[in-house]
Write a structure and sequence with these properties.
Helix content is about 70%, strand content about 0%. By secondary structure, it is an all-alpha fold. The protein folds into two domains: about 110 residues, no CATH class; about 120 residues, no CATH class. The protein has a two-stranded parallel ribbon. This is MULE transposase domain-containing protein. It holds the Pfam family MULE.
């Protein structure tokens, strides 16, 4: 090359023009596909579903009357607050969930995570009401808690299929990650294991309970592995090679951020 150094391997995403250019400019040099971009591509449809679930869940929570009642009353020159300590804590938790934002160490499906926490709240309310119904007593804020329980139960029931589908795909993620992260498997062996797993998933598409998003995910994964799966494991053929160019990208983004602060957004872009 013009740099007068030997190129022993190249890592990139799977863009067709990029792959074609690399093959033409560096014939015979192992081309490795970045695992980060692999995940980003095959999980696009599930991530969109998860993002939608997160948006809808926060919208539902923010629309709950009792989360806004105190403010509504204050605007009318009146005062309202829950009397029962359990109710106060419940509203505090629901408010926190309504402002849920993805965090760096959150699971891949943050919408499903938020939904599961709301489902935990529903279980808590169900247990609480079962206990009080059995006692035959009345309690302060009974209407508040019962109405919140019914609203949350209705929302969870209406969106359970979305969450179940995401949880199913999440289990696939674990299996795929184990295959990609297996340091002992050779490139050929790892590819064979991944191809066999794709065949296993293809059979799942015939099940009656296979969701639309799950089917689209399986199709995207299978197509990717069939057309360029071998490139996912080329890094194994190069001693000491990384399986992702994430570190390089991070450094580049940090540099752009620094330049933007120094010389302005447009120039640094």
């Amino acid at each position: 090359t013009e740099l007068e150094v030997e190129v022993i391997g190249i890592i990139s995403d799977a863009h067709p023009k990029q792959r074609k250019a690399i093959a033409e400019v560096f014939p015979g040099v192992p081309h490795c596909l970045c695992h980060y971009h692999f995940y980003k591509y095959v999980f696009k449809v599930p991530k969109d579903l998860d993002s939608n679930l997160m948006t809808q869940t926060r919208k539902f929570l923010r629309g709950l009357y009792y989360l806004n009642k105190e403010k509504i009353y204050a605007n009318q020159g009146k005062h309202w607050e829950p009397k029962f300590s359990f109710t106060k804590e419940l509203l505090k938790i629901l408010r926190a969930l309504s402002n849920w934002k993805p965090r760096p160490k959150d699971p891949i499906f943050v919408g499903a995570e938020l939904f599961s926490r709301l489902a935990d709240v529903l279980d808590l309310l169900e247990g609480f009401l079962t206990k009080f119904d059995a006692s035959g007593k009345q309690f302060e804020d009974e209407n508040v808690i019962r109405r919140l329980y019914l609203k949350i139960k209705e929302y969870i029931g209406a969106n359970q299929d979305k969450n179940r589908e995401l949880e199913t795909i999440k289990s696939y993620v674990s299996e795929i990650k184990n295959i990609l992260d297996d340091e002992k498997a050779s490139a050929d062996n790892a590819l064979e294991i991944l191809e066999n797993y794709c065949k296993k998933l293809e059979a799942f598409q015939l099940r009656e309970d296979c969701g639309l998003v799950e089917a689209q995910f399986i199709e995207a994964l299978t197509k990717y592995v069939e057309t360029k799966g071998d490139l996912l494991f080329n890094y194994k053929r190069i001693e000491g090679a990384p399986k992702t160019n994430n570190l390089h990208e991070l450094s580049f983004k940090q540099l752009k951020h620094l330049l933007r602060k120094i010389i302005g957004f447009r120039t640094a872009k």
